[in-house]
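In the laboratory, one determines a bound structure by crystallizing the protein with its ligand and collecting diffraction data. In a computational setting the workflow is compressed into a single prediction: the sequence and the ligand go in, and a structural description comes out. We illustrate the idea with magnesium ion.
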Amino acid sequence: MPRITGFETHDVRFPTSLTGDGSDAMNTDTDYSAAYITLFTDTNLVGHGMTFTNGRGNDIVCMAIKEVANRLVGKDTEELFADMGKAWDHLTADAQLRWIGPEKGIIHIATGAVDNALWDMYARARRKPLWKLIVDMTPEEVIRSTSFRYITDAITKEEALSMLKAKEAGKQEREATVRQLGYPAYVTSAGWLGYSDEKVARLTKEAVAAGFTHFKMKVGVDVADDLRRGNLIRSIIDDPQFLPLGMKPRDPHSEDLRGKNAGPTGAVLMIDANQVWDVSQAIDYVYNLKEIKPWFIEEPTAPDDILGHAAVRKALKPHGIGVATGEHAHNRIIFKQLLQANAIDVCQIDSCRLAGVSEVLSVLLMSAKFGVPVCPHAGGVGLCEYVIHLSLIDYIAISGTMERNVLEYVDHLHEHFVTPCSINENGRYNVPSNPDEGYSIEMHESSIAEYEWPNGSYWAGRRAQEV
Ligand SMILES: [Mg+2]
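The predicted complex, in structure-token form:
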């Protein structure tokens, strides 16, 4: 049986701050970065994982990854794979490291990178993409792979097991459906705050032409500016002349679009403030944007403020605007409380802020129980590659629904991955199908050599120019 013999980490940073990609009300000059790990065994079997950061501090996360990954060295891989929930508990149970969390902040996102690398290794060992590994598990195996500690007041193992069993019969049919249609996606790339109106208009037209029906823009610096950009985007997405040839407008009153404030062509607009407001500011500001008819406001306030999100949701509900959050919800307990407090209309899990697949499964199960759709956070670097797997698991094995869901898609940095995600002609994610791609997060060695901080060829070259 293979044993884990060691690992290497890489601090990989991409200079996205030069172009305004990823700019929003809170994050103005970010360099999308990956704190990356490869686990090695005494055979050819490896596992790749990463967590995402915005640049500075990525080296600190790499240091934390080393501390967490050390806990796997010497372990028998098959023993780990046989009980991934127990493996997750082991990763989070170091009595000394726990003090610098627990289960939040740097140590937790580092655990996410390591747990994801272990799941990647497990999928590679079975020669299945990660999503397929999990949807092919029995309900009992899924439960064993899930982190349940601290959430059993919201969902017990027995309840989760009966939910999974109830979805067993339809799994094959749903898998065939999504392989054929692809998974619904939405586009954020058009609406970064740092872009000019001309660039926003051009990118929005391109996104409509590519088949997208859901669009997100960043808001929160200036109401008049946001209204102008929102109306600009609406003027394009609501106009049938920009639809791709042969595509008919969607019925805005259909079940798939219920409650989404869809325009006449069935297009949906979402807005994202990236935590910039206090609670009452959020309510006032979003009220002033109601003419652009957003489906939801994402991250209206501090990500830990569960009751604040509930207050924003209650105040905006009469105006038909929902609340979404999750990309900074640091563990399953925050999600549990967001659901228990009726604070969100949409659950936006993050694949590597949560500590890997085992914790993601617990949030997928809770969201299904509470009837809240999961629309994962993506973008950054590597996040789109990861999250298509999670949405497929949600649809095929857990919630059983996808047409009301949409998965974020941002068209940046995919070229650095060996098996990048892709979008079909109807603006939907293709299903990863290479049996050797694991969790789809393996980065090209050449990309690591070029963008590793501080001595990769790109960064060394830039320093040489600045001298
Ligand atoms: Mg966001």
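The mean pLDDT is 96. Keep in mind that any predicted model is a hypothesis to be tested, not a measurement.
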